[in-house]
Every structure is written in structure tokens, then in C-alpha cells.
Amino acid sequence: MPQADIGLVGLGVMGENLALNIADNGYRIAVNNRTPDKIEAFIANAGPLADRVSGDADIATFVSMLKAPRSVIIMVKAGDPVDAVIAQLKPHLEKGDVIIDAGNANYHDTVRRFAELDGTGIGFLGIGVSGGEEGARHGPSIMVGGSEDEWHNAEEVLKAISAKFNGEPCCAYLGTGGAGHFVKTIHNGIEYADMQMIAEVYGVMRDGLDMSPAQCAEVFREWNKGPLDSYLIEITSHVLDAVDSKSGRPLVEIIVDQAGQKGTGRWSAIEALNLGVSATTIEGAVAARSISAMKPERIAGEKLYGAAPKGKARVDLKTLENALLAGKIAAYAQGFAVMAKASEENGWDLPLDEIAKIWRAGCIIRSRFLDTISQAFAKGDAANLLTQPDFVTMMKESNGSLREVVAACAMAELPTPCLSSALAYFDAYRQAQGTTNITQGQRDFFGAHGFKRTDEDGDFHHDWPSLIGKAG
Ligand code: NAP
Q: Which numbered atom of ligand 1 lies nearest the CA of 10?
């Protein structure tokens, strides 16, 4: 067989499907995997693509199967396995070859890997790939970080295998170093918030309005025809519709309410905190998964305080739909604000409109909404999505519903960590006179941290005890 155009290490769910996608697009691909059986199985099951796939468990033989200059995609478990694979590949690669890490790397690791390969002549790209198994096979959204030269070398194949929105590839170069993996992290943070807010409105329907899974499914199906039209709303209706083959009951009622997390949501919240950008809705979603994992404590808590009453949420479904839209706007505003700040700090010049564009198809948060976001960012350099005219209009129309739902849930004893934090973020964002004047007073009182005055420039400090009781 002629030499392969590209190599791929890691035949997990994502790697296997990405390799088939590459072959499907006419490229010859060679594969390698730690467990050799998977290589044989992959080649044996390649069907009509068999003449374009090859592979070997021996890393030197695998590298020798690639056309020079070589491009090798690594799609293994994030963290130490990526470093292990790079260490295996390095002795067999030459100047001009490129390693492409396509897993969910922490962007700090990506920055370190760039530094470690610097001076070797071996190039590196850190790319975020979103879309799960289906996306990897038929077209994911691809967020690229690294040097522009290396991007141009890989551009043709990455664009070919990516999802398309109105014929445009959902794949773009976003900036140097860890830019691609950073954007993928924030994508996942937004995904956490999107998913949690959907879970919260499902909770309102199930507990606050006493609706069955089938009734909830019907509502999500309807919502998918309006402004909330998105992959996550669509699959929510399918999840609610599914019937367990063992018990005959709705499958959603059999699934344990404990959510897993692999780290990207938490990393988003950590990055937001480090950058000093408020991303409370993403933080709320991470916290919701953490508290979901504490099932025994929640059971004990319900025994101590009693269960929330059923059917007590005083909201209608239209209000709920608008509330979800308002919450979604706040969550995306936060995610994009985190990216804008990171771009400034790292000198990435992240194209926010382009990011929204490549999320319109292929990825998990794909939606009609992202088209509106990309158009809004293309119009100008707004500091925050909440200041973009289209979103000002949407938020003016929908924030009242968010307020109604959060208030109704508070009275019905239903938790809404994301929706309520979205509302608090919005109310804080549009409050010209906040309340941290008292915080600054306290900080100066106990720690001589100083404060600024509204009527004079400069930094001030007071001997507070001498001022007490002198008001009026
Ligand atoms: P995964 O379970 O994260 O990784 C499986 C692959 O990693 C297998 O090929 C496995 O080899 C290899 N591996 C694990 N430890 C290794 C080590 N120490 N040395 C060498 N290889 C090692 O599978 P995945 O879900 O396909 O994910 C791959 C990457 O894509 C991850 O970074 C993941 O976060 C990211 N991602 C996943 C999704 C998704 O929906 N699953 C979506 C986007 C991105 P063996 O076969 O020998 O075990």
C-alpha cells in the first residue's frame, strides 16, 4: 500500500471514528494504538474504506508508513497518556513533521508541550474536537491552536473532515499556542451550563408542574422549532421519549441522578476565576454536577428537611421557554467574555465571531442561536454579548420570564443553580450603582486596603474608628 497521508494514535471512540472520517474523505490513514488488538479490529472492520487504512502496533513501523513531512494526530485520554505518546513518537519523527493533539487537553499542558518541542523542528498543533462519536465520524467542529505555518499544512485535511454549516467548514485557526484547546475548554463550560439549565427546566416540569416524561418530551420537541432550536434540546426530547426495554418504564426515570465530569467544565470555571471574569452560570453547572454526585447526603438531607412539595411551581410553559433563552444568553455572554479576556492576556486575538461560526454545526452546543451570536460579534467589538443590540432586545423580552421562573422555583423549593445565577449575573451586569462600596469600606476598615471616592481622584484610607458616629 502507498504511504499514508496522515497518522493517528489512539483508537478509542473518538480516534476510531475520526480515522474513518479521514479515510472517507479520500485520505490514506495509518493507525496505532497501545492495545494492538484494536488496530487489527479497526482494519478488519473498515469495510469499503479498507484500501485506505493501514496500521501497526510498533511505533517505528507505524511512523515509517507515513508520507514525509509526517502529520500524526494523537487522540488518546488527556493528560499523561498524551505525553507518553509524544515521547514514543519523538525519536522517530524529523524536522518538519507535525504532532496534532486532538484530545481534550488542559491548555496549560498544550503550552508546556509547545515549549518542550521547541527547537526540535517537530511542529505541534493543539486542536479541540467537538461533536462526540457522531461528530468525529461525520464532521466535528475543530478549533485549532498553534503556528500558522503548521495550520496551513494541516488545513486541507482538517477542513475536509469538519462539519459544514451552509457549506462553510466548521474548522478554524484561532491563535497561537493553547488557543484551540482553551476555546474547546470554554465550549465545554458553556455546554455544561446549557445542559444544566435544560435539566433545571425539566425539573420544573417534572416536580413543579407534575408532567410525565412523554409530556416533557413533547414540550422540548416544540421548543426545538423556536429560538431554542439546538442539538441539546433535540436530544433531550429523545432522552425523555426513550422507554426502558427491561422495565417498560421511561428510561429517564431509571437513570441515576448522578452526573460525571471529566474536567473541562471545572477548568472553564477555574480559568474564569483566574482571569477575574464572572462565569457564575458555568460555575453553577459544575457545582450542580458535584452536588449530584453526593446522592447519599442528598437522601439524608431530604429526610432532615422534607421533600419539596409536588406541583407547586406557578409558571406556564411559554414563560419557562423564555426563561431558558434568557439563561442561555447569560451563559454564552459569560463564556465569550472569558474568551475575550483570555485572548487579551495571551495575545491570541481570538476571533469571537469565527468561534461562534464554527460552533454552528458539528459540536454538542450547535444551535440556531450561535448563528445570531456570530452575526452579532461580526458587527463590532462588544465587550459582552449582553451589550450587542440583538441580544439587548432578546434579553429585554425574556429576562422577566427568567425572573418569574427563578422566583416560582424558590417558592416551590426547586433548585435552579444555573438559572438563578444567570439572573443574578444579568441584574448585577446592568446595575450602575452596585453595593461593593460597603465591601471597600470593610476592606479599608480591617486591612487598610484603601478606596476610591466618587467625588475626587486618588486613593484614600481612613482612620475608621475616629469617624464612627459622626454621620449626619
Ligand atoms: P478515551 O477513553 O479518553 O481514550 C481512549 C484511548 O486512549 C485509547 O486508544 C487508549 O488506548 C488510549 N490510552 C489511554 N491511556 C493511554 C496511555 N497511557 N498510553 C497510550 N494510549 C493510552 O477515549 P475517547 O472518548 O475516544 O477520547 C479521546 C480524547 O478525545 C480524550 O482526550 C477525550 O477527552 C476527547 N474527546 C472525547 C469526546 C467524546 O465524546 N468521547 C469528545 C471530544 C473529545 P487503549 O486502547 O490501549 O486503552
A: 9
Q: Which protein residue has the closest C-alpha to ligand 1 atom 34?
A: 104
Q: What pLDDT digit, counting tens, does each position of 88-108 carry?
A: 999 999 999 999 999 999 999
Does ligand 1 lie within 6 Å of residue 35's CB atom? yes
Cβ within 8 Å of residue 396, ≥6 positions away: none
Q: Write the single-letter amino acid at 71.
A: S
- Cβ distance 140 to 162 under 8 Å? yes
Please state which CATH number belongs to domain 185-429.
Answer: 1.10.1040.10
Q: How confident is the model over 310-339, as pLDDT tens digits?
A: 999 999 999 999 999 999 999 999 999 999
Minimal CA–CA distance to 68: which of 87, 93, 100, 102? 93
User: Where do the structural domains in the chain lie, given as residue ranges?
Assistant: 6-177, 185-429
Q: What is the 3-state secondary structure (H, E, C) of 76-108?
A: CCCCHHHHHHHHHHHHHCCCCCEEEECCCCCHH
3-state secondary structure of 1: coil
- In tens, the pLDDT along 173-228 reads 999 999 999 999 999 999 999 999 999 999 999 999 999 999 999 999 999 999 99
Taking the C-alpha atoms of residue 169 and residue 161, their distance in angstroms, rounded to an integer, is 9
> pTM above 0.90?
yes
CA dihedral 177, 132, 360, 107 (to 10 degrees): -20
6-177 carries CATH number 3.40.50.720 = yes
In this predicted structure, the answer to whether residue 472 has a pLDDT above a threshold of 70 is: no
Residues recorded for the chain: 472
38 close to ligand 1 (CB < 6 Angstrom)? yes
